[in-house]
Design a protein that fits this description.
Elements lengths: L2 H19 L3 H25 L6 H16 L9 H17 L7 H26 L4 H26 L3 E3 L3 E5 H16 L9 H28 L15 H5 L2 H16 L1
Antiparallel strand pairs: 1-2
Length: 266
């Protein structure tokens, strides 16, 4: 089976799952939490292959608590998310005390905390967006703009790509693909006009911003994979790699879109 056919089938299955999940807040929370757990597992596995001693299952457990706490509307303090980060850091230091030898303490603790922030906390904003006024329409706009940008970059880059974008980070990405991705993101956002009460100019701005951020998220994960000497974060999704490979473009778009919609627009 060709890679394109595998990607197409996998994309259709993921689209069906996501479209079904976003209709219900609880289901979305559970699906997002599951995806985050898979992404964290792949992230920590990559670091282990590099030889870094990470706190893999502790990191996954703490990473799962964050989206679940959002889902159940836990808010003990104004910035309650940082409570879990502080607890995680404290726990990691206490766990280190029990080790007989302590090589790579700083790297192990730092990379574990980074994974919780980078994968879990950032992606948890997907759930927060769903809880905003008109959250369903906003989330549809976010997902459409971000993921269609991915698709556009792949299609245009595969067909017309010639000029390398950042060869030292991701050799296959091209300037033509990046521009095609931005065009798809803008069109996708404008196509969501019936879901959100914004004009086409505003939606074009949102689409362009999300398109840029989505590509930066993709490149950031490519930077991590290159440092760990792996091509894909995993092999869970046929033709597409791992779960983290599919979530990477949302890592920056979700939190920034949330803050823009909750602080600037509303």
């Amino acid at each position: 089976m060709s890679t394109l056919l595998k990607r197409t089938i996998s994309s259709i299955i993921l689209i069906v799952i996501v479209c079904g999940a976003i209709l219900n807040q609880v289901v979305l929370g559970l699906v997002t939490t599951f995806f985050i757990a898979l992404g964290l597992y792949e992230y920590f596995t990559m670091l282990e292959r590099k030889g870094i001693q990470v706190y893999k299952y502790f990191g996954i457990a703490m990473g799962v608590i964050i989206p679940i706490s959002i889902m159940v509307r836990f808010q003990s303090t104004k910035n309650w998310e940082f409570l879990f980060i502080i607890i995680a850091l404290f726990s990691l230091i206490m766990m280190q005390f029990k080790r007989r030898l302590n090589p790579g303490v700083i790297v192990g603790i730092s990379t574990t905390i980074f994974g919780i922030l980078y994968v879990s906390w950032f992606l948890s904003f997907i759930i927060k967006i769903r809880y905003l006024p008109n959250g369903l329409g906003l989330l549809a706009t976010l997902l459409a703009s971000t993921k269609l940008g991915d698709i556009g970059a792949y299609l245009v880059g595969s067909r017309f790509g010639k000029v390398p974008l950042m060869p030292k980070i991701s050799p296959k990405k091209t300037v033509e693909g990046a521009l095609g991705g931005l065009a798809f993101s803008v069109l996708a956002a404008m196509g969501c006009a019936s879901f959100v009460p914004y004009g086409y100019v505003h939606l074009a701005f949102i689409g362009l911003t999300l398109g840029v951020l989505g590509q930066l998220g993709d490149l950031s994960e490519s930077l991590l994979k290159r440092d760990c000497f792996v091509k894909d974060s995993g092999h869970l999704i046929p033709g597409m790699g791992g779960m983290l490979d599919e979530l990477d473009s949302l890592i920056f778009t979700a939190p920034i879109f949330y803050f823009y919609m909750s602080s600037v627009v509303h």
